[in-house]
Amino acid sequence: MIKKLSLKQRSLEILIRLKRLYPEAPCTLNYETPVQLLVATILSAQCTDDRVNLVTPALFKRFPDAVALANADIEELESLVRSTGFYRNKSKNIKGACQAIVNKFNNQVPQRMELLLELPGVARKTANVVLAHAFGINMGVTVDTHVKRLSQRLGLTEHTDPTRIERDLMILLPQPDWENWSIRLVYHGRAVCNARNPACNICKLADLCPSANS
User: Fold this and answer.
1) Could you give the domains of the chain?
2) What residues does the HhH-GPD domain cover (predicted)?
């Protein structure tokens, strides 16, 4: 089937199957407000969402909004997020981002990509997550380690740079599905196509995957 389908057709067929396999595709980070989602996404860098979800209840109880986080004692903030790794840099970015939200954006998380990218600690991955899940705006495809690995294995990109992978996927996929494509690939990466031992023998995408048929 791989030879008979164009790259775009194959991408759309993969999307259809992912929707069947994972019909519900909510964000796996726990949050109540756009600011909390922004903070949780910053914390998720080089860290599992499960670990972030263990940390954020105490963090958000102590510092529930942008004003509180902007004025947080940096050492207390570091203590609360220490187990997510790189805690000093993450704490600095969270505090700095919230200070910018309060001082530059009238205490509101920006709803435009270029403005979000002005915030400390925010690159396209974080901005895409916040725009899609907090505001329902699909401006790009979130490329994390799972999305990068599976997109390469599925032959949808030849690039290794997340920005270039994102551009490839944006061409291949319908814009309304950009963010949930990423989440479904994350689910599939965890359940079937893991990094070391992909379970190609049970994978429902195997006949569409060059890596499974090589």
Assistant:
1) 7-26+141-208 (1.10.1670.10), 34-135 (1.10.340.30)
2) 43-191
